Amino acid sequence: MVDINVIIPAFNEEDSIAHVINEIPKTVSEIIVVSNASTDDTVKNAQAAKATVLTENRKGYGHACLCGIEYIAKKSKQPDIIVFMDGDYSDYPDELTKIVAPILENGMDFVLGARKKSLREEGSMTPQQIFGNWLATFLMRLFFGAKFTDLGPFRAIKYEKLNELKMQDKTYGWTVEMQLKILKKKMAYAEVPVRYKKRIGVSKVSGTVKGTIFAGIKILGWIFKYSIK
């Protein structure tokens, strides 16, 4: 039996977090919600939905993901696969099975859930998100010959390969850092098209001017850093 753990970073997602947890397939052995300095009932609602809940008070998507990884590293038995997804209910948690399939069936190291335009609910991604994803993936194709079409948060990776990446980014650059390191280490990767819908609540990144600017700077910074290495 393959052991799968899910890490869900969550900042003030009290209205959505239980929906996400409850729709994750039962084949997952542990769901880990990392409350990233939440000030609402995210923790309470995640606990009520039977998830393991951690608290990371240092704000930043990467901080939350690293907190989840540190928790897993201390377990007596580590999982085979780690899945990351957002806590805002924009992903379809039941598609986790589709995302891990290339790892289980084809030996892939990493699988990205690509938010294909034909499968996206209208308005689920802001214009700046769409442009930012296009620019980042275009540059990855240009510099590294990558086949990525998205920087989507719904992703699966073999636990041993995740450890090899030695992830560092604490904020907005987490997703692109992971993909760049996978390219540099020549790991086997694949994309699978996934559905995407409007999130519950307002995005803390793409929903604000500050978040959009800082995310863009971080993402481009990682790409140019790796392009000159």
Characterise the protein shown here.
It is a single chain. By secondary structure, this protein is of the alpha/beta class. The protein has a single domain, classed as Spore Coat Polysaccharide Biosynthesis Protein SpsA, Chain A (Alpha-Beta Complex). The chain has eight helices and seven strands. It has helices spanning about 15-20, 40-50, 60-75, 95-105, 125-145, 160-165, 175-185, 210-225, and strands spanning about 5-10, 30-35, 50-55, 80-85, 110-120, 155-160, 190-195. A seven-stranded mixed sheet has the order 3-2-1-4-6-5-7, sandwiched between helices. The chain is globular.
Per-chain topology:
Blueprint: E1 4-10, H1 17-22, E2 30-35, H2 42-48, E3 52-55, H3 61-73, E4 81-84, H4 96-106, E5 110-120, H5 127-144, E6 155-158, H6 159-165, H7 174-184, E7 189-196, H8 209-227
Parallel strand pairs: 1-2, 1-4, 2-3, 5-7
Antiparallel strand pairs: 4-6, 5-6
Helix pairs in contact: 5-8, 7-8
Number of helices: 8
Order of helices and strands: EHEHEHEHEHEHHEH
Query: What does the main sheet amount to?
Result: 7 strands, mixed
The tally of structural domains comes to: 1
Shape: globular
Instruction: Determine the CATH superfamily.
Output: Spore Coat Polysaccharide Biosynthesis Protein SpsA, Chain A
CATH architecture: Alpha-Beta Complex
Order of strands in the sheet with the most strands? 3-2-1-4-6-5-7
**Low-pLDDT residue intervals, each spanning 5 or more residues:** none
Average pLDDT metric: 92
